[in-house]
Amino acid sequence: MASLRPLRTTSVLRTLPHSIKPSPYLCRPLTTTPNLHHNTTVDPSEVTHFNALASTCYLDVGCGGGIFAESAARLKNTASVTAIDPSPEVLSVAVAHAKRDPGLVSMMGEGRLEYLNTSIEELPRPGTEGGRQYDVVTLFEVLEHVTHPAPFLEHLLPFVKPGGWLVLSTIARTWTSWLTTKVVAEEVVGIVPRGTHDWNKYINEGELREWFAKKEGWGNMRAMGVVYVPGLGWREVPGSEGLGNYFFGVRKEGMEDERESWGKGGYTLESRWNFSNRV
Amino acid sequence: MQVWDGVSDSRISFDWASASGLAPKQPVHQSTIAYMIENLNLTTALLSRLSELDSKLFISAPTRVSSIELGQETETLDLRSWPTVTLDNGRQLAARLLIGADGANSPVRTFAGIPSRGWDYGRHGVVASLRLEGPGWGGEEHKIAYQRFLPTGPVAMLPLPGNMATLVWSTVPERAARLKSLKEEDFVAMVNAAFRLSPVDLEYLHTIAEGQKEEVEWREQHTPVDEQKIPMRAVGAQAGSVANFPLKMRHADTYTGERVALVGDAAHTVHPLAGQGLNQGQADAAALVRVIETAVSQGSDIGSQLALEAYTSERWQANNALLGAVDKLHKLYSFGSGPIVPVRSWGLSAVNAIGPLKGWFMRQAAGT
């Protein structure tokens, strides 16, 4: 896609409305205790409480250079990030970039951040040996390059834990996206190699909605259109999901009682993000 | 705050009572427009706040930076984009984000290769801690700052607790050198003369090597002034407090580089006539904190250009506008005669007469 600057994809996750239930069986919770001093203004009970919430597991499909995987790994409420890409060249770029950050290097040592050179088709499926499910499965700037998107998504869905989210970003098939991604990005500015995009593979937000509406156990769909404003960077523009680049989130239904208890407790993903701002 | 033109004597008096209309409805203290805080108090407060915060804080002081170099690549780590600071005690620190708060000649700015442009004013600032004959005309509870614009630059008397005050006298380098060489009684006489005598008298007084005290006493008899409108007389200067430094205008092309951010004088140097240097630096620090908080909340690398660029865009224009305004003020008041003098005098009197306009200027100065 015509990425003049990378999108801050982690901020998108804040808009997810429901909580993600931490599951101690599938994710390894963080065991590090913050080094607290007597003179601190941070309430120790808040920190302990917060650590208990550090349990979101991510699967980033088509991680590329690792821009999302790195950001997700740095978030305090992240238990693990598994980032996969079938291209060994791309994956080595991601690993080399992570080496620039000692924090990420130690996370890779602990297994909290792992890069795997594999496609989603080769990743062990949940329920089989070595297979597992994730709270958030992300698929950023991948779908527009896939020739058969329906079977591809079909393959992806079992990796989402009940109550978890699939979050993706892609480009709508419109005359504006043709102009920006084919003409401007590939021909005029030349920031991506010619032939990077196949406009015919672009998927409209309405098509995704229609597809997921027919899926049993999936709902809570939401979209967020973003537009690159020269000089300002990427900005959310309501309604622009019908124009070009957009994010799309869809939730796998979980057990009803779980969702309610978490909702009442106020532990939405959003409030947990606020936690990480405060600590 | 009292400000006046040393050539024409036209005057502006900054106090909320006379700045009707747009003044704050309920200022905390009815007459306070600014605070003078001694550096020692600021530093002490900051250190005690820091001690309340993160236990991971490491302070190395007193110490000097010997060198800043980029880090190395090893098998497991690639620190080639990380500034590595070597201290004079041999300790090495690799920085995810190196903040240059290291003054006008910032070694961090040099390390980052960020050009800084501007010009020298050909003036020196002479500073001193003075003892006055009393706490000031407003008493201990109502301190007044004074600034007189002389053709060589403004001379300001800024209040401190008790009978103390700070002098900031911008003048040409030769006169600054002369002032610094004087005996205490002659120096004090020159300070009193700076707020009272005409520019012509002052010019002469700088040409004599000593004996200013007697010269000033004699000339004051022939120069009537309203003592209540100017600072109380200085009676002494604190030993060792007289110092001078060159005045410059400098602005860095950008405030951020890979794993580098500049704040305060490292990013910009301003003429002291409006007293805005510290305010600018504090606004820089506040903006940088907000940018870092955003980056942390999004899981960004706080040292990356991508995360830091919002800091430059928030502060550069604002600082540039202020640097420009202060620079124009300096130029406006450097004329000793000619058509500019009556025009600027009219301007000052006009601002003084128009309450809301004056209120606007005061809010700009107070940073509210």
Automatic annotation (TrEMBL), chain A:
The keyword Transferase applies. This is Hexaprenyldihydroxybenzoate methyltransferase, mitochondrial. It comes from the Eukaryota. Keywords: Methyltransferase, Transferase. The keyword Transferase applies.
UniProtKB/TrEMBL annotation, chain B:
Keywords: FAD, Flavoprotein, Monooxygenase, Oxidoreductase, Ubiquinone. One of its GO terms (molecular function) is monooxygenase activity. InterPro entries: FAD-bd, FAD/NAD-bd_sf, Ubi_Hdrlase_CS, UbiH/COQ6, UbiH/COQ6_monooxygenase. Its cofactor is FAD. Pfam families: FAD_binding_3 (PF01494). The keyword Lipid biosynthesis does not apply. Residues 57-203, 210-321 form the FAD-binding domain. Belongs to the UbiH/COQ6 family. This is Ubiquinone biosynthesis monooxygenase.
